[in-house]
Amino acid sequence: MRRIDWPGVGAEKRGSILFLPGRTDFFEKYLESLEEWHRAGWAVTAADWRGQAGSGRLGNDDVTGHVEDFGDWVADLSYFWRAWKRSTPGPHVLISHSMGGHIVTRALVEKTVDPDAVVLSAPMLEMAGPPLPLAILHSVARLMTRIGSPQRQAWKWSEKPGEMPSRRRDLLTHDDARYEDELYWRENRPYLIMGPGSWRWVEQAYASIRKLEAPGAMERVNVPVLIISTSNDKLVKHEAAVRASTRLPHGELVAFGDEARHEILREIPAVRHRAMQAISEFLNRVVPRPK
For residues 252 and 245, is the Cβ–Cβ distance under 8 A? Predict the structure, then answer.
């Protein structure tokens, strides 16, 4: 797993944050937030999930997001967490975005990580899509893995292979400069580029969501969890985030509306500032500075 480590600064060490991005993401997109936490005294680490960005590929080509089992990512996180925790000062905090938030939630439910606090940004607790029961969506995806290669792309990227979809910006952020920043990294580090997920990825996403939806799953998580979500999200379901904030025994929710799209930590300054301030206030309350 490709990683970046950024020690904290200042006389008072705040603790350590491990940040994990979403599907198709890479840690360069979040350098702004990493740097802000670093300046606040946190030792910061971020990593690319195995099989995407700078951590290689698991499919047959360089752009399809493929995984055989979401449990592989849960196992990766658990292994990474143990080694990282041993080498960094506490308290230890997990912050994640989108698909990363899903995997972190799985790891919490399965008790394979033991953070002092967790922040989930627009977590992929349910995917936006057809308004059908989860069991039916999963069955359709499972069928699609059997009538063709499960590694084939599950949706179309654009009319021209490799070209960014024209409406992609409208799904992610209102901030043109931050969106252009992502395109800069894609142009200058082409190995970071990833496009559609495979049908196996889709099938496994639904299978993993069903695990989280199981009665009692989230209810046995005893860690303080802050969820930041927006009702304007067109990629993941805001309703699932709201529901999770009530199911988690120590769950909290900061909700946005039309002013925010999926990438809340990469939104216009007013939105991003509110999100970052909420994270700071949450961590100051649930994991105070070490004495």
Answer: yes
CA distance 64 to 10: 42
Closest CA to 202 of 264, 139, 257: 139
What is the Cα Rg of the chain in Å? 18
By the 10 Å C-beta count (0-12 exposed, 13-18 middle, 19+ buried), 7 is classed as: middle
What's the predicted TM-score (pTM) here?
A: 0.95
CA angle 73, 101, 14 (to 5 degrees): 105
> Which two structure tokens, joined as six digits, stand for 61?
């080509």
- What is the tens place of the pLDDT at every residue in 182-221? 999 999 999 999 999 999 999 999 999 999 999 999 999 9
